[in-house]
Amino acid sequence: MEQHEFDVAIIGAGPVGGALACRLAQAGQRVALVDRAALPPMEHPDFDGRAYAIARGSRPLLDQSGVWDALPIAPCPILDIRVTDGKPGRPASPLHLHFDHTEVGGEPFGWIVEARALRMALNEKLNTMPGLSLFAPAAASVTRHAGHADIAIAGGPKLRAKLVVAADGKHSQLRKEAGIATTTLPYRQSAVVCAIAHELPHDGVALEHFLPGGPFALLPMTGNEAHENISAIVFTEKTALAARLMTLDDAAFTAEIARRLGNHLGRIALVGKRWGYPLAAQYAQRYTATRLALVGDSAHVIHPIAGQGLNLGLRDAEALAGLVLGTAGDPGAADLLARYQAARRPANMLMLAATDTLDRLFSNDNPVLRLARDVGIAAVHRMPRTRRFFMRAAMGEG
């Protein structure tokens, strides 16, 4: 059987693996991309309520790969971020923190991109990019050697690459086969994800509202023909309560959203589906093995409290692409992989620790902690330099 030669083989065509494949192929690398799923059905032609927050510091990879310009639905800029604390059904604490994009150069903090739009853009580029060979749906088995890796496609060709990238998610088979251990931090929480249409405009303001059950985030989205004003909702609750919320009819579920959101956007209505995801943080003990690099969820999974999960994965991909494209030598060389781990693992571990601490500090109803965090939020609001530090962190540029 004929063997096909590649510089890099990427297993997993999600947003991180797909964007990395496009970036490398755009720069002239020979790239194979393998995914177990058929990609076109993943496009979800109907609005389904899911969205990604793309921080300003994570956009370069999408720009350089051509994916950003291929988005069929315009992203919505995040112009301001408001941080509050409270309880469901009660007004938010008057002590708050407000981030204004004009204080850090005038560019948006980031953008909210519909999940289906990102999938459609990726699929367009993956199917038209010269130098990129897509195998999907396809099952692959990988055998790594000192000087290369062999990838056998079930019922298909044999591939050989200098580097294999594991972008196959938190249950990564490649990571397991490499003997890379992981540590899991359970939260006993689940994320509830949906979208709402609302009477009043959001003005590009994102809300992070801390509640005893977990953070409640409102993310501004681009309106459509059916609804002028739309926002995505991502909030966490204790697992049992989240499960009950998922069983409510639309009217009762919308009322629960309104209890947490308040009335500043006027009347609201549920749009699209609702989704539930159990939460746990997870991190790999190392990001590399012989001829192997982990990116995205295969390397790290964090709490969604700051909306940084996908952004960390995109920055993994950007760092790895920069190293591969910055050398004329072997993209799977041990020293290159060591530089990749040194560049990304400490930064990712810092963000994991920060989100874990924030969740444990804010996801409770302890009156002493509530007072301390409210005072802390208000203090940061009144300290311009500290506030700008947190704003740059939110943009992925801290």
Q: What this model shows, in words?
A:
The protein folds into two domains: 3-49 and 115-184 and 281-360, FAD/NAD(P)-binding domain; 68-113 and 185-280 and 361-394, D-Amino Acid Oxidase, Chain A, domain 2, CATH 3.30.9. 32% of the residues lie in helices and 31% in strands. The chain is built from ten helices and 19 strands. The strands form three sheets. Strands 1, 2, 8, 9, 10, 11, 17 and 18 form an eight-stranded mixed beta sheet that branches. α1 (15-26) runs parallel beside α3, α1 packs parallel to α7 and α7 packs antiparallel against α8 (334-362). The radius of gyration is 21 Å and the shape is globular. The termini are far apart.
**Reported CATH architecture of the largest domain:** 3-Layer(bba) Sandwich
Q: Total number of helical segments? A: 10
Top-tier CATH class of the largest domain: Alpha Beta
| Rg result | 21 Å
Determine the N-to-C terminus distance: 50 Å
Q: Characterize the overall form.
A: globular
Structural class: alpha+beta
> Could you spell the SSE succession in H and E letters?
EHEEHEEEEHEEEEHEEEEHHEEEEHHHH
Mean pLDDT: 89
Low-confidence stretches: none
What is the count of distinct domains? 2
Q: In percent, how much strand structure appears in the residues?
A: 25-35%
The CATH topology of the largest domain: FAD/NAD(P)-binding domain
Main sheet makeup: 8 strands, mixed
Helix amount: 25-40%
